[in-house]
Amino acid sequence: MSIITKYILRKYLINFIIVLMSLQLFFVGMDFLQNSKDLPDSANLQLLYLMYNSFFTLTLTLPLSLVFGWIVTLVIFVRNNELVAFSSLGAKRVNIYLPVVIISFILLTILIAIQTTPLAYSYEQKKKILDGNYFSSTKSDIFLKYDNNFIYFKKLHPLRKEAEDIHIYKVEDRDLVETIIAKKAYFQNNKWYVVDAKIVKKPKEMNFETSKLEVRYEKFLNTLEGFKPKILDNVYEEKSNFSIMDAVSALSLLEKQGVNTDKIRAAIYYELFIPFFILPLIMIIFIYTSLNRRFFNVGSYTSLTIFGTLVIWGFFFMLYKFSNSGVIKPELSLLLPLFLWFSSTYIIYKKRKKNG
């Protein structure tokens, strides 16, 4: 690593950390002040609220801070004539912005890794604290299809991995052939175990004079293998988020059931790929930065770059909301625009390099 690269990275990381801390303190602090009257009196719950809110806000502030920190760094470099000095020392344009792109890629990868952990549910956890039901989580009236079964949960306790008042209807060729009724079921060893199940089975050949329903009881009955309570909790909520691991598991399971997976695919694309929209942005901001202080308007440059960053981020966020609501297929609304954004940035860079 050259001396120039070390110097650029040191300056950039300092500015990035300052911007990140400022944005975090602003968003988390404003949220805490607005909701402090509704928070529990417990100091522990308040600290947990701040922690969950900080992680949730990080998914927004970190990508933006990477860009804003780069803008601040470039402004300082131009005002101090350091970009001219770098060029005089033989540094090419790519040697200036590439280290920033690489470190941004690493930080975004770390952010994505966090989204594979339970911290991906930070928004949900902080909302529970705010609503006063942090220690209890119950979902009611969940109805789902699994293979040839239609399953109804009167109550679901995702944290305890339990369900109450279960009805399982087995259907063959549009004909109801078996019903399983139980008061309780729990999730263990990647399966749902129905306790004290009552099984009512219809005879294969119906004769109203001689046929009768077969009724038997089972102490334990396992079903719905691999369908995690957290997946159940989120898939059937209108507004919910997923950890990447749970989203991949839900996608695999629901595709087998022929269930629409647009919402889950949108969540996976948004968490895995969309954060990298800032990498072309870092490059395109640099190639439109004047090396000469004499032709550099700090006010206009800062306003345009920050406004442009927010517009592009808002555009991808809007597309995610459309995908999440099922208006547009996520491949068309997220992956295609991201590909076009990378491609157009590359074309602009090549033209700018040719003319420059």
Gist?
By secondary structure, the protein is of the alpha+beta class.
Beta content: 15-25%
- Give the number of DSSP strands: 6
End-to-end Cα distance, whole Å, is 27 Å
Which percent range fits the helix content?
Answer: 55-70%
Residue stretches low in confidence (pLDDT < 50, at least 5 long) are none
Net shape: elongated
Structure classification: alpha+beta
Question: What is the overall pLDDT average?
Answer: 83
Sheet with the most strands: spatial strand order: 1-2-3-4-5-6
Radius of gyration: 27 Å
Q: Which quaternary structure do these chains form?
A: single chain
Contiguous helical run count: 11
Helix-strand pattern = HHHHHEEEEEEHHHHHH
Largest sheet: 6 strands, antiparallel
Q: How would you characterize the overall build of this protein?
A:
- There is one protein chain.
- This protein is 57% helix and 18% strand.
- With 356 residues, it is an alpha+beta fold.
- A six-stranded antiparallel beta sheet has the order 1-2-3-4-5-6, with helices on one face.
- A hairpin with a 4-residue loop joins strand 2 (149-157) and strand 3.
- Helix 2 crosses helix 5 (122-131), helix 7 (244-256) packs antiparallel against helix 8 and helix 8 (262-272) packs parallel to helix 11 (330-355).
- The protein is elongated.
